[in-house]
Amino acid sequence: MPEIKEMKRSEISYILSFVLLSFLIAGCAGNRDKHSQDKFFAEQLIACNRNLTKVVITDVLTPPVCSRVYAYTNIAAHEALSAGKNSYAGKLNNLTKVPAPGGKAKDYYLPLSSIIAFCTVAEKVVFNSEAVKKMEEDFLAEVEQFDIDPEVYERSVKYGREVGGFIIGWASKDGYLQRNSFPAYIVTKENWRWQPTPPDYTDAVEPNWHTLRPFVLDSSSQFRPVMPELLDTSQKSSYYKNVMEVYDAVRNQDNERIEIAKFWDCNPNISITSGHVTYFQQKISPAGHWLNIATTILEERKTTIEKSAQVLSTLSIAIADGFINCWEAKFHYNTIRPETIINRYIDKDWRPLLQTPPFPEYPSGHSVVSGASAVILTNIFGDNYSYTDSTEVPFGIPARKYTSFNEAAREASLSRLYGGIHYLPALNNGLEEGKRIGEYVLSKLSAK
Fold first, then answer.
1. Smaller CB count within 10 Å for the chain: N or C?
2. Is 80 exceeded by the pLDDT of residue 197?
3. Contact 351/339 with Cβ under 8 angstroms?
């Protein structure tokens, strides 16, 4: 009997130890699940921006419109995540107090709200809303793997929809829907004004974009660059020297310059003619390129969703205001492209390496956007930040390495000279314009 009792005590001791161990393991597993959940959501805003880029490309949106899409979606994600704290309300033009969640913080899982707000806005600012709905459905299907309380889930989704709807209401009053009610661009015979260029002779893109409400700028002309030189075909003029610089840059190409020009082309819709057949190729926009640089860095650094929301919203705001300010200057100065001048006065058979975009030459849009982006990313990640840019790899163009964002911005700007579509003053003054916009955005968003 004593042996039997002793054996029972051993069994009881073993069982108790097993139960205790099971509780400990369960506790650790729970921590791992919460960690996995937070990690998953930290990656989702990055994934959403990349998926949105795919939609934007297939929608064939113009560069200015692309910038607007990224700005409103990322602002919505930021506002839902901040839940009234550190909001952009009062910092972005006409953005009033964003709805705050009711109840306590534990009653919501704000990362979920953030992605829902992003998708809610994205669905309204693109053509292919079905693709966005599918993106959201796939996201929510993945969320099912996590043990989120059903009531928390429902409240979080509802709050995301509420914030998204609020941002949509704000966006609807920015002038986008009314811009085409203004007069269209009229081509005249004045030899200094922009004219449609080969091969498609497309009408001017977004001539009334300056009528949109900026995000933080006081006006669309706030950082208008200095007046460009007037057309002067005398061979001793500085204007003629600028023309010849473009002409020679294309005639005397080397592999490095060709690679740079193609890497930063970022023309969302170029036409390609092969024999008697013409087809169009869709690519990423300047806004999409710089947003992809940011998402790559955020992914590598394994940042929180809060950090991602701050970076992507700030960057997209600067890019969007960069386009508004740049387009105001383009159609204010209304300068002719190198291709037109060179074909008319120097060489009728000359063609640029890149297809000339359908809007005035001065200033360079990519220079403005790159200058603004470099300021934002340098402020966040620091100067001399080395990274590899693989944005163009899906389009068959090799990745390039940079030692700083400013280096990348300068190269992006010079790519327009190498490609034969801009004069040097449009690049230098465009970069400076972009830098001023980036600095102003930072000052406005950091203001108390």
1. C
2. yes
3. yes
